[in-house]
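Consortium newsletter contribution from the modelling node. Members have asked for a concrete example of what our holo predictions look like. Here is one, prepared for the zinc ion complex that several groups have been discussing at recent meetings.
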Amino acid sequence: MIRVAQCWDDGVATDIRLTEIFRKHNAKATFNLCPGIMEDETVMPHWFEPTYRGWSHRGFSGGRVGKKDLTKVYGGFKIASHCMKHETVGRVSLEEFIRGAVDARKILEDTFGMECPGFAWPCGATSDDSVKALRDAGFRYGRTTVNVSGDASRCEDPLRLAANCHFLAPDFWMKFDEVKKTGGVFYFWGHSYEMMDCDGLWKQLEGKIAAISEDPEVQWIDVIDIVS
Ligand SMILES: [Zn+2]
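And here is the predicted structure:
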């Protein structure tokens, strides 16, 4: 028996399609959200104009789930802080970073009416100081973007929690099979906007989720269960 956990970042509106897939297949998931960059209304996914000069994923925007729709979209899933405005270690002061992490947690706990002691490091950036500050603030884990092989629960410091791979990693099933041999936790992550409006990628992901859910040797868990 192995346990499988997944988490998804940034609160993009492509999560609407994603959460429908997870509900259909009874998959657990954690969503890492930034309440400081949400509008009241949901901004739906869209392609930018060809001359758009800002950041995009291959010219595509995943949009953003609005405050009004948060509980409808993410109801039944676990929620974790991803800072108010994606404050990233190394780009803002330590004080600003930790305020972003803690304020986001408070808003998310009020919105969802549950404890949200988890964290995902924006851009995967960490430092010794920020790890200590996050631990002192009472967070239980912080997901990095480091990949490990084998049981993801064999982690030295939960504030530097590593996953096995990204959901589009070419070695996704190899990593999964490795954990199956030894037992333990297989943990993957991603951003739903990476699938854009490409039906092939969405079908591919749904197939993965279905295969995991239908595997009698697999049990879905939440990310917080990895460190509990
Ligand atoms: Zn992010």
